[in-house]
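Hi R.,

Here's the chain you asked about this morning:
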Amino acid sequence: MTAAMVEKDQGSEGRPWDYLLRTWQELGVPEGWRAEIDEGQIVLAPPPHAHHNGIAAKVRRTLYASLPEELEIYQTLGVHVVPLDKLYVPDLVVMPAELIASADPDTSEPLDASEALLIVEITSRGNAREDRTKKYRAYARAGVPMYLLIDRFDTRGAVATLFTEPNEDGTYKHSEAVPFGKPLPLPAPFDVTLLTGDFPG
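And here is the predicted structure, written out as C-alpha cells:
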C-alpha cells in the first residue's frame, strides 16, 4: 500500500470511522487503484503487476470449477472488518451472491468481512508485510473462515498459504503452506486443488 493518505479533520463531528467511511465513499479513485481504511487513514494503492493479475485469474478459474451456485467470486469489493474498523479491498472475495444482490444501489457500503467464506490476498512488493501481518490478524478477528495468502516475495521463495479456523485473538489455528509448484488443496465448499505451478512469474 502506498501513494496517499487522508487523515481525519480534527474539526469534524462523529466517530473517526464514520468520517473515514464517508470520505472513502466520495473518493474518485483512478481505475485500477484501490482505497482502503487502515490505522485511521485512507491508503491508496496503485494497480498491481501483470503477474499479480495473472495469479488472481488462475485462482478464480480454479474456484469456479466447483463453486456452489449460491456463491460468487468478487474483485474490488470493499469489506469492513467490524471489530477493528478497518476496510480492505481484497484481491478476491468469495461471498453469498444474495448479499451482493441485496446491497443498497444508492450507497457504496462495504460488506461485513465476516460474511466472506474465503478471502485471497496476493502480495506485491509494496504491501507484502501488510498482507502477512495486519490483514492476517484482521481477517481472523473478523471470523473469515479461510484466508489464502499468495506471497510472491517471501524470503524463502514464493509460497501459497491457506489459513483456516480463525480465533478471536487475531490468529488462525491451522495453516498449510506450499511453495509455488506444489498443489494446495482447498476444503469444502470448494473441494478443489490449486495448482500453484501454473502461476505466472
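One quick note: Residues 50-64 form the longest helix (15 residues).

Cheers,
M.
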